[in-house]
Amino acid sequence: MKQTFWKSVLFLIFLTVPLLIAAQGTVTGKVTEGSSGLPLPGVNVIVKGTATGAITDIDGDFELLVPSFPSTLVFSSLGYATSEVKLTEPTVLSVTMEESATGLDEVVVTGLASSVKRQNLANAVSTVSAQELVGTTSQSTVDGALYGKIPGVNITATSGAPGGGFALRLRGISSINGNNQPLIIVDGVYYNNVEIPSGLRFASGANRGNEENSSNRLADLDPNDIQNIEVLKGSSAAAIYGQRGNAGVVLITTKRGKSGKTKISFSQDLGTNKIAKRLGVRPWTAESVESAFGPVDGPGERALFEATMAANGELYDFEDIIYGNTGFITETRLSATGGNDKTKFYVGGSYRDEEGIIKNTGFDRFSLRTNIDHRISNVFDFTSSTSYTRSNSSRSFTGNENEGGLSYGYTLAYTRPWINLFPDENGNYPDNPNAAGNSIFVRDHALNDDTNDRLVQGMTLNTNLLRTDTDRVKIVTSGGLDYLANQTYVYVPETHQAQVRPGPGGFIAVGKNNFTQLNTQIIGVWNKEAMNGALDLTTQLGVAYLYQKSNLVNSRGSLLAAGQTSVDQSVNQVIDQFRSEEKDFGYFGQIEGNYKDQIIATLGYRMDKSSRNGDPNEFHGFPKASLAINMANFDFWSIESISQLKLRAAYGETGSPASFGSTFTSLGASIIGIDIGQSVVGSKGDPFVKPETASELEFGFDLGIFDNKLSFEATYYDKKVKDLILTRALPSSSGFTQETTNLGDLKNTGVELALRAFVFDNENFKWNTSIQWYKNRSEITRLAVPAFAQPGAGFGLGLGTFYIQEGQSATQLVGNLNLDGTGTKPTKVGDVEPDFQMGFSNNFTIYKQFDVSFLFNWKKGGNNLNLTTFLSDLGLVTPDLETEEGKARLLMPANAVRFVEPAGYFRLREASIHYALTRNTVNSVFGNAVEGVRFGVSGKNLFTISDYSGYDPEVSVNGGTGLSTGIEVGSYPSSRQFFFSLNVNF
């Protein structure tokens, strides 16, 4: 019986083993690119429902042990449509992959050396493709092109001048005194987005460098070079970037080459630039002139009014004279892309020339880019990204000043429209009897220019140390250089009215500014498949180093020799120099576990030290953790109509060191031997200052219906910032003017919702639409000192300012009011933060030839402090002063509540219609040399509905840093643009 038993066992084993062997098998194959037929390396090949996979080699070949049959292999690669192949047995495959516009949306680069499928993300990471960025209409700058396209991102124009000037805020205010602009990384290079003061304030009388109408230097990056942008909005996503990620991170990937024959693309845009909104002229009559200026001056002003009407038949419309120029815009682009199985390249060049709505203002940019990808062997491959930009701006004179006679907004607020300011037959400009300057003279002869030369170089070397069926190990070594040479030039002739009487006799300022930024990182990445391929583990460890150096030299002179335009020809000369050197160093590690694309968890930690901290050798830690659960990927899921239901949660911390020099106390001048009451007058630093630290908890879910033709994303976040570095004024008795140190905490909470639908998707008609809705609420949760007006963030409690107060919004506007008759006290009069913001976009394709697109923005609530109206009220030229509302406003005290206005709006941001010639038409007209021709018309800022009385409810007079939004003083008006575009592909 024993022998019979063992014989039976052996017989069963003999029958079972072949079945077990047949249950698994090796699949080999080659993957090629659809349009060229060339091998496609780096393609991910995954057994669906598992973490078992392989990557195609340099020849596009792969080999994969499939654990069981039947199975499905999933092929995915950045920029290509994912394809699936069902298998019933081991075989040899030949797979072709086609380019896909949505392929970019499938793989998201969120870390320093790793990527993740969007379906597995545990954070709300927003992606903007090249088509979304510049596919509708021509764009001057990257930040301007992002308007209304990302939930949770608030963008404010700090100037309407060509070449931009924008403030980006990701999920509210991250710092009161420091930088609120996100960290920008372009192809792995830390990109300097600095605003550079020119010294203009010393001529205009403005108080601060951020009031000089400068552009931020993201303007040097051509938006047409960009392939996609990924925005890590909160600390839970940006924690891996440590103490540079407090305000979020913007990852920009530029266009790269593709295997196949060389393709050449040519584009030409022609456009116009006109003021978007006119305020108009007060409807004067002889009687209203005399009444407005009273019994003393009224009769004389009436006589001037009547003389002008008799001579010209109309008054001078100085708004039209200064802001009424129709600027011409032209942009030419040429690029080539191609490559083979080892080397791919992208080469592009562009030139943009944009005239402003003020004569003699404009912006031009010449840009060259070369991106190369080369696979040396199966072990080594590298990428190189090189760009050179030469840009020039002429921004003239707008914004805040103190009777310098230069800013158009100031001058026009007092200039009466019956005064002739045009030059006589000898070229002599008359004095303006109502203001400190003649705005026509300033437009024609004064200069406020800058020139920028910029080189950005990025390099990455990948070393594949190990590649087996279950383990892949590589070393990623990368580095970047960003070098910017900036020159500024401000010139006010000695014949300018304010310079002659009683002024300094002309003014000139020349700036020579250099910025060098280096970053490098070395990262080891280990990908491990466990549990027979069901679990995929990705571990990375690395170090990062950042070095920044700047040298700003500003030479100024006054009392110029007649006709001279250089500093050395002035009598009174001053030279300012600011030098800084910063070093950051950090360690980081992260492990990600992916179980069958069902449960994805990540743990990470970064330690950073910075020379800007009180203790430059102290490391500060920034942890992160996240969890995503793809419910629709579980075996029990049976609702076929719901293709995705992902629950996600994430936590992370980021930091922001103090600004350079905050650890030191600056000393003012004193006279030795003379008792002046105090020996030290300056800014009090804090040698023990700690970095600001943000911690964020984020929850959300993603829902996809009907194979993701309808998708919905919802996110709630709670972001807390501790150890706020604040600057507050000190009484002179302290011996200091102000101090900068850790004084408080704040928090931001918000909701982000995004809905996207492919409503129709057939051969002759396609329609996709998206809606984005978001809101944010900020609050100062702790303040270690009494409430105070933030220096440099307003115009004092008399006219209105941002006010730092525990328990109140960080963006509240406060002024001194006497509401109860007991005396004036700081009182909230408004808040620049809106109730919510929304974007609504639609794209239609009709018969594969017509493309129609439009983007609406809606901002509900929020206030601006309109001090331009305050000035024009003082000058009695505000257009509405004949109305009951205007008359009532003149009777009100000139305080903050009088000039706070609702700043909500509804705007058609972009719209276009393009037509693509059919293939037959192209061949018959141009032959086989041309592959496609597309042309069309488009526009930006086509109309705006708003109760705001100023030029634009999106306004900031204080530049892009700190609390910079919601205050208007004579800003450069925004414009409406129209374009004709032609694209030809060879």
Description:
The chain contains 16 helices and 46 strands. It has 986 residues and is mainly beta. The chain folds into 2 domains: 128-277 and 325-559 and 577-667 and 680-763 and 775-985, Beta Barrel (Maltoporin, Chain A), CATH 2.40.170.20; 286-316, no CATH class. Strand 26 and strand 27 form a beta hairpin. The longest helix is centred in the first third of the chain and has 21 residues, at 2-22. The relative contact order is 0.12. The model is unreliable at 9-22, 101-105 and 671-680 (pLDDT under 50). Keywords: Cell outer membrane, Membrane, Signal, Transmembrane, Transmembrane beta strand, Transport. InterPro entries: Beta-barrel_TonB_sf (IPR036942), CarboxyPept-like_regulatory (IPR008969), Plug_dom (IPR012910), Plug_dom_sf (IPR037066), TonB-dep_OMP_SusC/RagA (IPR023996), TonB-dep_OMP_SusC/RagA_CS (IPR023997), TonB-dep_rcpt-like (IPR039426). This is SusC/RagA family TonB-linked outer membrane protein. It is a multi-pass membrane protein.
Task: List the domain count as a whole number.
Answer: 2
Mean pLDDT: 88
**Count of alpha/pi helices:** 16
CATH architecture of the largest domain: Beta Barrel
CATH class of the largest domain: Mainly Beta
Strand-pairing-aware structural class? mainly beta
Unreliable runs, pLDDT <50, ≥5 residues?
9-22, 101-105, 671-680
Choose one word for the global shape: globular
State Rg: 31 Å
Oligomer: single chain
C-alpha termini separation: 83 Å
Number of strands: 46
Strand content: over 45%
In which range does the helix fraction lie?
10-25%
**CATH superfamily (homologous) name of the largest domain:** TonB-dependent receptor, beta-barrel domain
Task: Characterize the largest beta sheet: strand count, sense, and whether it forms a barrel.
Answer: 22 strands, antiparallel, barrel
CATH topology value of the largest domain? Maltoporin, Chain A
